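Sequence only, no structure available. Ideas?
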Amino acid sequence: MCKKQSRRGEHRFFFFACIIIAPILMCGCSARPAIKEANEFSSQGNYKASLSKYEQIIARYPAEGDNVLFEMGLIYAFPRNQQKDYQKSLECFQKLIKDYPGSWYRHDSEVMIALIDDVTRKDRGIITQQTQIETLEQEVKSKGNEIITQQQRIEALEQEVKSKAFVIQNYGSTDKILIEKKERRLTLISKDKVLKMYKVALGGNPNGPKEREGDNKTPEGTYVIDSRNKDSRYHLSLHISYPNEEDKKRAKELGVLPGGDIMIHGIKNGFGWIDRFHTQVDWTEGCIAVTDGEIEEIDKLVPDGTVVEIRP
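Reply:
I predicted one. Tokens follow.
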């Protein structure tokens, strides 16, 4: 009787053991095909499908969580994965360590975390170096553009020098300066040929010939360049021989002083940046004004003794 009861107890224990163990065994077995499918997706390079499959597995088979998290962590960190995400990889390995402390994958996960930290640190270093390289390349490009600009300026100056040399060689220096007040124009002439023309500004009261000192009029008549002043208050200056005999006679008849110090000059020292804008208004006290660059050119082409004809 006792033996029969003992056998019945063993059968009953085995029966309950089977009931408890069977679902676990069934779960493991049923998860394997899904894991195999996820692995196949990964080996084919379809990492997005593989990750999606692993997410389904971990939701349906929590007991496989450590295995799945480890595989997902590897895929997220895999170099050939165009959508690799080191942060998500770290989250997978960290969750595995936290939720599955006794897992066989714990040590490997810790190793992977250390590797990913090292890779991301190196990546940041590479990005920094690339940024520095790009900055240096931009600086080199900027310097290159600056060099090109300077070369263009040099070529322009060389061309200007050649042009002046050609003028001097073929026509000699200027033998006449023609100033036309109405047109606000100064023309250099050599052997009856026009060498160069310039836009000018005149005295603040330009209409009519100069009659007296302080009337801000530009003279009219024939004169010569009789001297020059390289230390003038205005950038260079060529002195015109005003007043001539006719000017003195007219002033005497009027009972006034004829005035003097009539020059062809550049812009007032320190204001050369105004350049060609100076011709927008007649601003001198009777002189003829050009830009600083133009007076430098005129100074080289016009010798003392050059005739100056000033027309209304």
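The CA atoms of residues 54 and 142 lie 52 Å apart.
Hope that gets you unstuck.
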